[in-house]
Amino acid sequence: MVNVVLIGFAVAAVWLASLWLRPFGACRRCHGTRMVMRGTKRKPRPVQCPACKGAGRRQRPGSKVAHRIVRKVRAELDRQRKNRQRVIEEDQ
Ligand SMILES: [Zn+2]
């Protein structure tokens, strides 16, 4: 049972890390090509992808949350470090 929780945490950590490192993924509509084919089969006409507006990528769902969490954790670590520093300085 504990193992399942640990695996869950590990999966969540890996997922968050991947979102942190790569917040953008290839656009699903154009697969990163920035163009989609319009028109008929005999006369295909490439147009700018309407889903990503020609960017070729999309923000992965959850990446904003991941960045918020990382910022929060960093702020907390920074706060703790400053607290430790203050204690050290007060001791001297
Ligand atoms: Zn697209």
Give the structure's gist in a few sentences.
This protein has helices at 2-21, 63-91; strands spanning 24-26, 35-39, 44-48, 57-59. The chain is an alpha+beta fold and 92 residues long.
Molecular structure report:
It contains two helices and four strands, in the order αββββα. The chain has helices at residues 2-21, 63-91; strands at 24-26, 35-39, 44-48, 57-59. A two-stranded antiparallel sheet has the order 1-4. A two-stranded antiparallel sheet has the order 2-3. The protein has two domains: 1-23 and 61-92, no CATH class; 25-59, no CATH class. It has 92 residues and is α+β, with helices and mostly antiparallel strands. The protein binds zinc ion (ZN). Zinc ion is lined by residues 27, 29-30, 49, 51-52, 56.
Calculate Rg over CA atoms. Answer: 22 Å
Average residue pLDDT: 90
Number of helices: 2
Helix and strand element order: HEEEEH
Secondary structure layout plus pairing:
Layout: H1 2-21, E1 24-26, E2 35-39, E3 44-48, E4 57-59, H2 63-91
Antiparallel strand pairs: 1-4, 2-3
The structure holds zinc ion.
